[in-house]
Amino acid sequence: MKTLKTPDKTLAELRKRLGEGVFTVSENLDNLRLHVPAAKLIDLLTALRNDFGFQLTELGGEDYLGYPGRSASRDRFEVHYILLNHDTAERLVVKTGVSDPDPTLPSVYSLWHGADWMEREVFDMYGIIFAGHPDLRRILMPEGFRSFPLRKDYPLRGRGERHNFSRLTREES
Amino acid sequence: MPVNLLDEPDIQAESRDYHWTLNFGPQHPATHTTLRLVLELEGETILKATPDIGYLHSGFEKLGEHLNLNQYVTVVDRKNYISPPMNEVAWHNAVEKLLGIELTERCKYIRVIIGELARISDHLLCAGAAALDLGAFTAFLYAFNLREQIYDIYEEMSGYRFHPGFTRVGGVMYDFTERVIDRIERLLKTLPKVLADMEKLLFRNKIFLERMRGVGTLTKADALSFCATGPVARASGVTYDLRKDEPYLVYPEFDFDVPFATEGDCFARFHVRMEEMVQASRILRQALDKLPGGPVNVPIAEKFPMPDKGTTYNSMEGLIQHFELVMPNRGFQTPKNEIYAAVEGPNGELGYYLITDGTQVAWRTRTRPPSFIHFQLFPHLIRNHMISDVVAVLGSLNIIAAELDR
Lengths: 173, 406
Prior knowledge:
The structure holds 2 protein chains of 2 kinds. Chain A has a single domain (8-164), classed as NADH:ubiquinone oxidoreductase Nqo5 subunit (Beta Polymerase, domain 2), CATH 3.30.460.80. Chain A contains 4 helices and 7 strands, in the order αββαββββαβα. Chain A has helices at 8-18, 41-52, 115-126, 161-164; strands spanning 24-28, 31-35, 54-63, 77-85, 90-98, 104-106, 129-131. In chain A, strands 1-2-5-4-3 form a 5-stranded mixed beta sheet. In chain A, strands 6-7 form a two-stranded parallel sheet. In chain A, β1 and β2 form a beta hairpin. In chain A, α1 (8-18) packs across α2. The model of chain A has no long low-confidence stretch (mean pLDDT 85). By secondary structure, chain B is of the alpha+beta class. Chain B has one domain: Cytochrome-c3 Hydrogenase, chain B, CATH 1.10.645. In chain B, 47% of the residues lie in helices and 12% in strands. Chain B has helices at residues 60-63, 73-76, 84-99, 105-133, 137-158, 178-202, 206-212, 220-225, 230-234, 242-245, 266-290, 309-314, 316-326, 370-375, 378-382, 389-397, 401-405, and strands spanning 20-24, 36-42, 45-52, 167-168, 171-172, 336-344, 349-357, 362-368. In chain B, the strands form 3 sheets. In chain B, strands 1-2-3 form a 3-stranded antiparallel beta sheet. In chain B, α3 (84-99) packs antiparallel against α4 (105-133) and α5 runs antiparallel to α6. Classes of the chains: A alpha/beta, B alpha+beta. Chains A and B meet through β3, β4 and α3 of A and α1, α8, β6, β7 and β8 of B.
């Protein structure tokens, strides 16, 4: 497995452009992660897209409720944005955190239309609201579903939704 | 289920009287899978298509948080069920990257081989079904006949025809036998003939060409904006292929080309897929010729692989290792870390965002499903086309609903 070159130059220039301390960096193998607060997310992604040629390839969420060794001060939810530069084959993982009771993040739909359904899925599964998304509805779960199934406090077998699902019988139809 | 048709306000209210709405699916022979489209039409011209998905949602990602890293391979099989081995390779690629396991040479070759077989199988279905939907039934039969041979290979190597569940953390279930290799050799002999037959049937078929050319055109800028990858992006001029640009396994050792087109229409996507099958067979040929000997799994001392029956019953280490892996409160150690790792699937970048928490059950198994991401393109590609173009565009995107809804 090839270890990608750490894009030190990209990072240095990003820091110059956005100012020190906007994001922190962590690394695991070839994944270079930029942790950024929600308020600075759009600035960072816009700079990465317009000035460094990065494109979004993946967007998804995760819930860290009860994750071993995670300090209580960190956000419960995180959303990852995997960016790829098609010319240099550099990859960056941008991560931003958000917590209850107001899990709201800015939508990146205006930067990449591909974020449309992926943000809807994160909303559907975790209840994270993407402000500025043109059509934030549930996508995989039925419209009347109340819970957010991929949250860690949602049980694997559900809360009886399947059992209580209202069915249309032949007589009623 | 109500579908909001008002999200794109480009239809003028006064002309709405002449429009009609057509429900397409969720059970319709031409969708091939369970997905629903609500089409807003003027005559036979589509003004707006609204996909409504989720009919096959089975909570695969939630299941991944309750099954261990070996067990989950049976679930990833069922995502893109047209090319299950590729899902397995992608899943265990992410797991092994996170756990820091270096596979044996032979195992890397075997994974390349099963991955490329899956690619051929997937492209055959996509190309064949595209022809079927446009009325060219014969080409579809040729393609499906060859897919049977690939299923025979799966059966020979793993015992299962449809969902082999072949890979394991640190290796594969069984080593390749002579009979498996013999079957792959036979496939490589038949494949060029089938591809030649399909080309003869389709590439000079006027109806087929006219229904594919210039239909559903995707520009390069849109492909990037919509996160398209794989053959869909390559047909629009984004020449990115993870096998070349971010090599994994042993792909750098093979000589193959990355086919691409710039037209971005249905025919370009179809053509790229046809050409990728030729390249996949080149990789298979080289992989079979170079297939090294030696062990297929990493040594038992590394505490990851499931030992085979012989080792389990005849050696102390094997028995201990087997016990450690199958007991629910034991299992292997994982780091408290996360990783994104992707491979070039038949449909595009097939990646996993994997988080582990120290136990053998993953904390989060996010899939990057190419079908899901490509299906968002559909409303944009189909706009202002005729209703008969729906099947052409749908077929060229190769939407697999099990992967779409997971």
